[in-house]
Design brief:
Blueprint (H helix, E strand, L loop, with lengths): L20 H22 L18 H8 L3 H11 L3 H18 L16 H6 L7 H12 L1
Helix pairs in contact: 1-4
Bound molecules: zinc ion.
Zinc ion binds next to helix 6.
Length: 145
């Protein structure tokens, strides 16, 4: 009999497929728009986070050190700073979503819980959404309980 094509070459690799580039660009734009809006609300006039030269404790060298150090420590401090406010938290999630979009576009728009695609309308309204509606609902229900 004719030898059938070897099945071992292509089947095991079931890679998640990224959404069409056009859609990714759309959400990138949405995320950047939201980011700009929140930054404005937070009173930042640039992309730089942290106190704008206002050294509340009179020691400005601590801040220049903070700016020079872009390691995990700085990131943790940035996070702590951002998480102090609701807008800040939102900004953090927007940044995380942007990072996902750039670094792992095939994961963007997929539910972190069940892996399903998040509905376009939901992502459009909330581009930083990490869960599909069903999983989000379940999470909220468990919180209430
Ligand atoms: Zn889900």
């Amino acid at each position: 009999m004719a030898e059938s094509k070897s099945a071992s070459t292509k089947d095991a690799t079931k890679k998640p497929k990224a959404m069409p580039k056009k859609q990714l660009q759309h959400f990138e734009k949405r995320l950047l728009e939201e980011r700009k809006r929140v930054l404005k609300e937070l009173g930042h006039h640039s992309d730089t986070l942290g106190p704008n030269g206002e050294a509340s404790d009179g020691d400005s060298s601590a801040y220049s050190f903070h700016m020079a150090d872009q390691g995990t420590d700085a990131m943790e401090r940035e996070k702590a700073f951002l998480f102090a406010s609701k807008e800040g938290r939102f900004l953090w999630h927007l940044d995380q979503a942007l990072r996902r979009l750039y670094k792992a576009p095939e994961m963007f728009g997929k539910c972190h819980q069940c892996g399903d695609e998040i509905a376009f309308e939901r992502l459009d309204a909330l581009p930083n959404a990490r869960y599909c509606i069903a999983c989000k609902q379940r999470e909220e229900d468990s919180k209430k309980a």
